[in-house]
Write a structure and sequence with these properties.
The protein contains 11 helices and 5 strands, in the order αββααβββαααααααα. It has one domain (about 35-260). Helices cover about 60% and strands about 10% of the residues. Helix 5 (about 130-145) packs across helix 9 (about 195-215), helix 9 (about 195-215) runs parallel beside helix 11 and helix 10 (about 220-230) packs antiparallel against helix 11. The structure holds zinc ion (ZN). Zinc ion binds near residues 137, 141, 200, 203 and 238.
């Protein structure tokens, strides 16, 4: 067991040394062994499948609110990356913001900008600023390429560092399962567990800035997480107890609000 762990550590280190990219905003170096185009092609395939199997909400007002907040934050993120000379980061993106019928208190964003909110999270969002909190956080997961990072980890740990295309050909079912988990849709929590806290904190940090740039008061994010904490109960994938506890999360967010306020456009 120890030997296997050592081997994995070695493999990760070896691959990491020449396969890493940088997260915008935070500047963190991350593992990336999958070309963005391949990752997005897989993501869009999984997304199309999901949309075929699930129903869009019939609530026109809520749907319009999701699309409107999504478009606003998308525009702000595009402007931010353009200012930093990082527009290439969005190559191949095909943004979509949808509200899907489901009681689950959850939302996700797959690589390439495919955002889905479940109707179950809307009451906790309460208003546009609450939606912007979740939207900023989900878009941050995509911009920070957490899906690609987790998928890279999955390929290394479970398939010995095999490339994505080769993995899809030789182990299609396992690769698809890895992707669903890596993209935050799968409910299984597996080998990627130790990285989740890092990803969640990073998405909170970036999301706060993104919502502020789009004109939403970042203090509202703190209020959203208080409502989420009060709701408790059956926690869905994005909000599992393995993630920062709500209390830690709220305290961390409060510390980040002053930085985000510098981006806040009223
Ligand atoms: Zn998250």
């Amino acid at each position: 067991m120890k030997r296997k762990l050592l081997l994995i550590t070695f493999l990760v280190a070896a691959i990491f040394s020449n396969s890493c990219s940088t997260v915008p905003v935070t500047g963190r170096k991350q593992l990336s062994i999958i070309p963005a185009s391949q990752l997005m092609s897989l993501s869009f395939q999984e997304y199309d499948q999901f949309m075929k199997e699930n129903k869009l909400s019939k609530d026109a007002k809520q749907t319009a609110m999701i699309k409107n907040v999504g478009a606003k934050i998308q525009k702000s993120v595009e402007q931010y990356l353009a200012q930093k000379n990082l527009s290439d980061h969005l190559n191949g993106y095909s943004w979509e913001f949808n509200l899907v019928e489901s009681d689950q208190v959850n939302a996700w964003c797959m690589p390439g900008g495919k955002v889905v909110f479940y109707t179950g999270i809307v009451p906790i969002c309460k208003d546009e600023a609450g939606i912007a909190t979740v939207m900023g956080h989900e878009i941050a997961h995509a911009i920070a390429e957490h899906g690609g990072e987790r998928m890279s980890q999955g390929l290394i740990v479970q398939l010995g560092g095999m490339g994505l295309q080769a993995a899809l050909e030789s182990e299609p079912a396992l690769t698809q399962q890895l992707a669903m988990t890596a993209f935050g849709i799968g409910s299984q929590v597996g080998v990627m567990l130790p990285f989740s806290r890092l990803h969640e904190s990073e998405a909170d940090h970036m999301g706060l800035i993104f919502m502020a740039m789009a004109g939403y008061n970042p203090n509202e994010a703190v209020e959203f997480w208080k409502r989420m904490a009060a709701q408790g109960g059956g926690a869905p994938p994005e909000f599992l107890s393995t993630h920062p506890s709500n209390e830690t999360r709220i305290n961390d967010l409060k510390k980040l609000v002053p930085e985000a306020m510098q981006y806040y456009k009223k």
